[in-house]
Amino acid sequence: MNMETQLDPMKDDLPLMANTSYMLVKHYVLDLDVDFKSKVIEGSIVLFLETGSQYRQTSIAGKECCQSQFDETCKMRVSEPCHVPLKDVSTCLSKREYSDFAVSGKEEETTFDENSNHSNSEQASGISSSKDCSDTENHVNKDFLLVLDCCDLSVLKVEEVDVAAVSGTEKFTRSAKLTDASKELENLRNLIVHELVTLPADRWKEQLHYFTHCSQAPGCGELLFSTGTWSLEIRKSGIRTPADFPHAIRIWYKTKPEGRSVTWTTDQSGRPCVYTMGSPINNRALFPCQEPPIALSTWQASVRAASGFVVLMSGENSAEPVQLQEGMLSWYYYVSMPMPASTFTIAVGCWQEVKQQSFKQTAAETNTEFFLPSSQTDFRWHEEICGHVEYPCRFQNPAARLQAVIPYRVFAPWCLMETCEEYLLQLIPQCLSAAYATLGTHPFSRLDVLIVPSNFSSLGMASPHIIFLSQSVLPGGSHLCGTRLCHEIAHAWFGLAIGARDWTEEWISEGFATFLEDVFWARAQQLSHDEIKGQQELKALLRWRRLRDEVQNSEEELQVLRPKKESTGELSESGASVVKYGLKAEKIFMQVHYLKGYFLLRSLARTIGDASYLASLRKFVIKFHGQLVLSQDFLSMLLEDIPQQKKAGLTVESIFQNWLDTSGIPKPLLEEGETWKDCQLVQQVSGEVAKWIQTNRRIRKSSKKKMKQDEVVFQQLLPDQLVLLLESLLEEKTLCPRILQCLERTYQLREQDAEMLVAKDRNHMEKGTGTA
């Protein structure tokens, strides 16, 4: 069934339209110009394609059978072929959803002109006309359609790329036996692309060289295309199967200022910048792509911007700018590890690199040299053959396996450089080394950390080779900065190197990162066993309180970690699917997948013991890096390693039932909720809360008398203790303005980090004393 007809108009689901079962993008080559005056990114993208799994499977049954499927698929997409040959996805969305997410508030009407391939009131539709309606219907019904995810883009032209014109590519076709003279050149081009995308990993540099030159080859014929609200559909007249469809195509396009994949803004120093902000629609408003996670690809990009701007991007190399004409620089990045297109990240701004004196940096790194993997025996797993598609894998590189601290850089607006140098720069090697000590080989070869503009809606975001951090993590010392940095570093393993096969299972990424941030940060601080236990119990209580509040104040359907249950991971025949609730506005701000995921992993660790549990995590990383997983992949492997006497009735099915497939607080967690109050750090906070309540009552009784500064002595608290203190005082209904002012002075709340400020603001708002 056509993906468009399956969309439920009553739900805020994100459609993934790309027909990845028929064709897969293996490599993207972007060539872009960034124009801050018009707030537009413009240029071209070349896609190198291979036939997908569904086509290869059906081909075994014979070409006629395969062709009938494509005929049927195309018929499903036809609506009134004499007037509108391709049915637009917006017709399957509700009026509310459609009006919210249409490109310009009104879907572009596709029209036809007898003498033009490009006739649309706003942008080219690419659907050619026909003098005879039956002829149009016949062609549309039989031509294969390549469907890409695309939104908020102006597509200008699509063309086939003549890769056969590139010098040196003839070596890829020496063994070819081409007999059909009429199709010889088309087959030759596709054969070149096939040989290029399947080169072995040890020839990746050669592969990158030919990708570059082939992407610059001339066009050899325009292709027909149509844009809808969520997709770009491309066809070549007379081509009926993916095998015959051009395997190298170039798309000329430009973004729109209102496009939702990037945000145009100013940094904290007032200078213009643009960056990918982690939009719910991912990167489809930045470039046409295949969004389903299964579409793992590599990419390279050349980006031009005016001098003074720095281009940062997901890339293995630390790009050095090349001077073009006066006042213009070009930046080039590439990756050789296949990943979903949604992980591509770019940030262009007047960023300044934060550097430290060499002796300081050496000292910081020296302090982390003692970190080694928890067990040298864990490295025996590295000797196994990797389970992922072939690429230059760091897990098979002896030097990479011993690299505790990968090369890193820090960038920030000019006005934040001093703060970054004081806190952030020295934390990075400590956190990287702690992560290495926990999980082993770093999946990525380098790391950039960027302090993004103040409109960034999160505390952090991890992408391949680059982490975005909010300025909110910088005040208040190293605590929030360190924990957030550890969280984002953890995503290198869980979320990037290992991804969820179904995006609705966000807990696989966020739950693991939340659990591991505590482990990394404890090691980075070199805490004792008792200190680690105390801090982690305190953190668990804070998270339990957040989960309790969120469960009480959110829709039940959004509290389920596996909302598609038994159908999780299933795709339509074409490969298209939906991300359930992916566009639901309130879901963006929810933490349930962080918190319930964390508590599940914490429960499993307590069941089998921390040492055994971390060993299982390392085993899982080695077995599944470079691959996409479902919940059962991790749970099944973990349960296999648990001795029978420790399983306590644990099964994959019981975990689904208690933790992943139901709303609310999981039953096992309800039974544990009161135990954290016995923690010494928590009891200390309880004592301080009692002092503040007593002081508040005394002030209220003698409101005309000033409270002497030395009447009560308050203890110094750890950052997480202070958060718990403020949240506990929030539950008091009668705090007076003077006590709030005293709290600010005692704990210097204005200088604290984001978590503290949120708790303080909640106190002010709920007490109605914001202007007191």
UniProtKB/TrEMBL annotation:
Ranges for region Disordered: 108-132
Domain Peptidase M1 membrane alanine aminopeptidase: 442-659
Top-level taxon of the source organism: Eukaryota
One example GO MF annotation: metalloaminopeptidase activity
SUPFAM superfamilies, per the entry: ARM repeat, Leukotriene A4 hydrolase N-terminal domain, Metalloproteases ('zincins'), catalytic domain
Pfam families referenced in this protein's UniProt entry, alphabetically: Peptidase_M1
GO cellular component: nucleolus
InterPro entries: Aminopeptidase_N-like_N_sf, AOPep, ARM-type_fold, M1_LTA-4_hydro/amino_C_sf, Peptidase_M1_dom, Peptidase_M4/M1_CTD_sf
TM segment ranges: none
Biased composition range(s): Polar residues: 113-131
Record's protein name: Aminopeptidase O (putative)
